[in-house]
Write a structure and sequence with these properties.
Chain lengths: 152, 225
Amino acid sequence: MREGSRCRWRSTETGPCSSARGQLSLSAVEAGIGVVFVLAVVASFGVALPETGTHEAQLDAYADDSITVLSSEPPRHGGVTRLSEVSSSPSAFERESASLERRVRRIVPENVLFRLRTPHGSVGFRKPTGVPVGQATTTTVNGDVTIWVWYA
Amino acid sequence: MTRLERGQANLLVLAVALVVLTAVTGIGVSLADGALESGQRDSMERRAATSLASQLVSADSSTTVRDSVLDGEAVDGLVVSDLEQLAPGVSGADVRVRVGESTVVERGTPSGGTTVRRVVLVADETTETRRANVSASDSVTLPRRTTRVDVSVDTGPETTVSTVRVNDRVALHSEDGLDGETTLRTSRYETLTLDFEVDGSEAEATLTYYPERTTKAVLTVTVDA
């Protein structure tokens, strides 16, 4: 009989008992694996889904509102609306682009940058890549005017 | 041969393992349920906030003068029941509507929740009056654009004003002479020049016009279910 062993040794074909052989209790292993599986499934519920849609939707709303406000403003000199005045000719665009940029900058919220494209030129900042960007377009009598907005 | 020698499972360990596994599964199911419910509540809040914000800025709402331009007085008079009529989805939730920095209407204390912002102009109507003695060669140009003009003509006994033109279009005409006050609807996009056809020399016109003063603001709608 081996010393320190808790099980009795009998002279049979089977070897020593499992604790003497240094093996794990199989039930504990199976329970452990089962718990790990269940926790893995639960973790997949706990991981929050990415909400990329909300930034885009908010920026689209900003762009829509800005272009709506701009398109119903009276012109500074002649023309039907301010946007149609700016889009009427290259010289009109040159003349009006500074004040148009100031006006758009005042309308758009402070933490948002913009780019406004008219048929004869653009005002604003460069559009970045890889960030959520909201867009809105309106049509004037002289062409399309598009605004892009993104968070600064 | 003992059980251990035969390599069979220990009943106690098996029972403990089953209990542990059942407990973990129960906890997992309740966590999943909570996550699903909060996800649903988030999307419901977002729908309610978005629809309330769109209704508040839409052109045919009682709170706006035109699309994305809020009427300052109508917005100040908003109450919670108006919000529920505009967007039924906010019933039962804490809601707050702010224009710029000031809170317009609030129910409960929405902390967190979903916030939707819209860019708006807030329009306040002001009144200005101009009086002028008019003769056939005079035209009166209004310095501000307006959507309506109240024209009131006072004439002496020998004088008649037969026609009033706005930007060369005939707006008022009477063979016997105009009298009293009339309201003309004009376009917001044009600067107005009024011409009078006057027969005589004592005619005074009082023009009351209503220029709009707009300030830019951000409309913030917060819904917390």
